[in-house]
Amino acid sequence: MVYPLKPHPSLVKPKGPVVLCILDGIGLGQGGEDDAVATAHTPNLDRYLATCPWTPLAAHGTAVGLPSEKDMGNSEVGHNAFGAGRVFDQGAKLVEQALNSGAAFETDVWKALIERPTLHLLGLLSDGNVHSHIDHLYLLIARAAADGVKRLRVHALTDGRDVGARTALTYFGPLEQVLQQHRDAGRDYRLASGGGRMHITLDRYEADWPMVQRGWQCHVHGVGRPFPSAVQAIETLYAEDPEVDDQWLPAFVLEEDGQPVGKIQDHDAVLLFNFRGDRAIEISEAFTEEDFQGFPQPEKPQNLLFAGMTQYDGDTQTPEKFLVNPPAISETVGEYLIQSRLRTFAVSETQKFGHVTFFFNGNRSGYLDDTYEQYLEIPSDNLPFNQKPEMKAREIADAAIGAIQGDFDHVRLNLANGDMVGHTGHLQAARTAVEVVDTQLARIERAVRDSEGLLIITADHGNADEMFLRKGSTILRDASGQPLRRTSHTLNPVPFILVDPTGKRDVLRTPESSIASVGTSILSLCGLASPTDYRPGLVRTR
What global pTM score does this model have? Predict the structure, then answer.
């Protein structure tokens, strides 16, 4: 139950707002040549770390509700943790439990899926465990066989973002072997289509509907470059463009006798096996909405059954049918601020707007209460992020500064450069991205000082802090001696820095601190005693 919070016993709300500045993807790395954070020119970050109270925070694994310490943090679980003030088991862990226990297969949804003429499994193929996991796909395939499914098609997207840049063959080769074993056993199980996750299907926040349309045409209608196998498709595309990584591979379809082997047709079933919501919503809407407006859909399959691994948006109930219940997050920081009559402003560009709103608010769309909240989305540029590493950092800072100078009690922003540019694998572009963020931080800091507010600087996970693949301390290199690019998040901690112009507040250093403690810290700095079930906060009076 959400209720107005009592005053904090020792911390007093400042005159100006409490500002949460999330430096997406900027972690605390080892300082090597590939650490774009440490090797960038960042006089402001350097000054904060030298003069302000701060502490490192865990942002991965069990500290944010993921299954193991090998699991990288990500922006979804990170912002959930910020806004919840507690650790909830997240999609990856919930799905793993439901599949391994068999609970997912006892649902009416699964029973309905396996009754259709063809079961299509669609999703991201890797073991990144951010949006999906290949082990989940193998469990689905095995259970489908055990339950008597005769015809199954896999529509698999290449990753290169949560795993190595050109690692698709690591996943597609074994998958083709597994499907061949089923064919040898008399089942019609095949790979049907594929393509890069940043080129087809998995857009988010309605930034690029044509991307979803390309995926729809590929998976549903078999529109794409034809190949006899996925392995041959990937090998050919690699050879034709040595610079392309798995994120950006063009759409391909598998054909036999000149015809696609796996178009999605009337009366079929589709299960999207991704568990993370942001990049699953739009393609889900394309399959489920009666009056879908994202792009034209001639010859849309009729009487199609579509389900998600989980429900990706609880407010819009997208999709209506799913296998595993998502985490139920309530009593968030935003709700408590509203009950305490404190006003919030949240801003980011399109790529992370949902993170400072939807995910921060416990996976709920729209305003919690528009009397006390104001949100601003700044449209992202639609081009590769390494081509413009500045992204919309200045515009976000402009908006945040305006809010800081206004009458808000809490201002929340995400500067996405370190993450989005880090995912491209381009080291120099990532350095530039970090430098851009550093410049905007100084502007935000000045506004906070002028308003007599407080500034929290932190991150949801690492990324730009480690740009090369390593085995231990050794950088991995290709045949020509060039370092192999890392495009995924890192397991490194992130900073929690408090900029307090009065010097009256300090930051606690505890070994078990995680980003889930940021929620309590926001409430404390706003002069509120946190709920008893929240993680301990990170600030105290000197």
Answer: 0.85
